[in-house]
Amino acid sequence: MTQPPIQGAPIVVHSLVRHFGSGDNLVAAVDGVDLVVEQGEIFGFLGPNGAGKSTIVRMLTTLLKPTTGHALVAGYDIVKQADLVRRSIGVALQDSAIDPLMTGTELLELQAVLYGIPRAKMHARASTLLERVGLTAAANRRVITYSGGMRRRLDLALSLIHEPTVLFLDEPTTGLDPMSRLALWEEVRRLNREGTTVFLTTQYLEEADQLADRVAIIDHGRIVRQGVPKELKAKVGAPTLVINVSAPQQDLAKSVLARFGEMRPTDEGSLAVGLIAGATGVAEVVRALDEAQIDLHHLELNEPSLDDVFAEATGHRLEGATPTAEQTVK
Amino acid sequence: MTTSVLSAPQQHKTRDGLRQTYALSKRSTLEIFRQPALIAPSLIFPLFFAALGASSFGRTVGKVDGLKDVSSFLEFSLASTIAQGVLFGSTTGGTALATDIQNGFMDRLLASPSTRVGILIGRLAGGSVFGALQSIFFIIALYPFGVRIQGGIIAVLIMVLSGALIAMSLGGFMTAMALKTGSPEAVQGAFPLIFISLFFSSAFFPRESMSGAYKTIADYNPLSYLVEGLRVLTLQGLTTQSMAQALLIPVAIGVGSFALSLRQLSNRLAQL
């Protein structure tokens, strides 16, 4: 259960690169990433599927070797001191990798042994964690009988067995129903209040917005924006006005909107403009559309979001940024 | 007072490693017994083959070379029944490891400070315990039909230990396959190859009754000598050679298969 170093930032990544394949099939999944996660932060790593989030997490958790570059986690080099990194971090990977034939208690006790926790403390630690994640009643049931939310909570408990100083959560709420998602967020906040540094990957904007002190936005293996969510959103500037009009009137509506600000990418069938005048300019836009005899089906004004930050940085929207009914399973 | 050659941190590491290996072994053992559908075929089919063989070839007893001093074909079949059952069962460890790789549980193990050798031994241990229990099961199941072990209780213990060793040694090949492919289907697909090697041995018929290429293959097949060791323990009693054949052949195969598994594991980790 050795932990010390750390000193300085718990996660320091410098020019990290990971290639897959070779020759014509060479893919740079991570293409020169630099980042620093400070002590006690919840750091959100936001990006679409395939952007490189999980590849970075796998490298930082010693499951994958970088092609080039280096990183320190908890003060240890991820390649040269992999074993010490493993002893210092907690990891909950994307698909909660839990043996369905074991019970919650059995898995926690196995995990305790893997991390060298003495037998005398093992049972108490397992009980405490089961209680903490609300699984005491299900502790002696096989995991195969657990719901998706229960599995995620058990996964989180497993990652905490050795009281890690740095916790990696790779898309912890993907596929969860809203209630389970909220419960997990609360638990992450609680852990963070207790001093755990959290590195959280997500494809959900709301999750990053709600939880993260700072975020990095990644696309095609590169970090395109990094900073405090509020500041990033402020830099995007104007709020976005989104309207829906009938298809034949789209071009005319677009020309009207363009007079009020810069057009922004949005869903198909909608038009979006960054309102230079801010919220006070809405009335004027409505008047202009009315004068142009455009039949307005729907209108909404959105304050800048991380999706706007993403769109501004990449030129496209973050697909699947909000969980859909199909993605949500109990 | 004795002093250890290991320094304190090394002792700590060794103790943790042994504890991890034991915990992983316990897990793999529990897993096997929690899947009755997985273990039932490896108990039923060998008994079915033994019954089929006894009814089909029972009349050859006392007439054919290699069966002249045998009192019943079932007694002759006990060794092959054990070998068959353990062969069936040996796929479970490899398949389970491939499933661990596929569903990410292996990543959980690799992301922890657990020993890599412990992960492999832990995986094989479940199959080994099952192999021992299978041997006991077959000895008990055939007892009411007149099958007796001439070597007595020591021979029974050797046969049980041999069952455990066979499971571990052949399980090593399945584990290597699992690490190479990461696919449970591929591991199960490789099983017939091992089973065929049992058919091309003296498991079902004595080598004395064979001829041609079939005999040549059986002569070179280490499984022939393994089964014959078990057979002598059943039919004739304890001999140094039979004990050595029953125990050392699976150990030798196991050393090779475990080395192959370790190599595949290091290849897999190097590719990461």
Verbal overview:
The complex is a heterodimer of chains A (330) and B (272). Chain A folds into 2 domains: 11-233, Rossmann fold (3-Layer(aba) Sandwich), CATH 3.40.50; 238-303, Alpha-Beta Plaits (2-Layer Sandwich), CATH 3.30.70. Helix content of chain A is 33%, strand content 25%. Chain A has helices at 53-60, 82-88, 104-114, 119-132, 148-159, 178-193, 205-211, 229-236, 250-257, 282-291, 306-314, and strands spanning 11-20, 27-37, 42-46, 68-73, 76-77, 89-92, 166-170, 197-202, 214-219, 222-227, 240-245, 261-264, 270-275, 296-302. In chain A, a hairpin with a 2-residue loop joins strand 9 (214-219) and strand 10. In chain A, helix 3 packs across helix 4 (119-132). Chain B has one domain. Chain B has 10 helices and no strands. Chain B has helices at residues 8-33, 36-57, 73-103, 105-110, 116-142, 152-181, 184-199, 212-220, 222-235, 240-271. The longest helix of chain B is centred in the C-terminal third of the chain and has 32 residues, at 240-271. In chain B, 46% of the residues are buried. The A-B interface holds A 58, 61-65, 83, 86-87, 89, 91, 93-95, 97-99, 101-102, 106, 109-111, 113-116, 142, 158 and B 16, 19-20, 23-24, 27, 30-31, 34-35, 100, 103-114, 272.
Specify Rg of chain B, calculated over alpha carbons. Answer: 20 Å
What is the CATH superfamily classification of the largest domain in chain A? P-loop containing nucleotide triphosphate hydrolases
Strand content of chain A: 25-35%
Largest sheet geometry of chain B: none
* Sequence of secondary-structure elements of chain A: EEEHEEHEHHHEHEHEEHEHEEHEH
How many helical stretches of chain A? 11
- Please state the average pLDDT score of chain A: 86
Give the C-alpha Rg of chain A. Answer: 23 Å
- Quick one: overall form of chain B? elongated
N-end to C-end Cα span of chain B: 47 Å
Overall pLDDT level of chain B: 87
> Could you state the oligomeric state of the chains shown?
heterodimer
Number of strands of chain B: 0
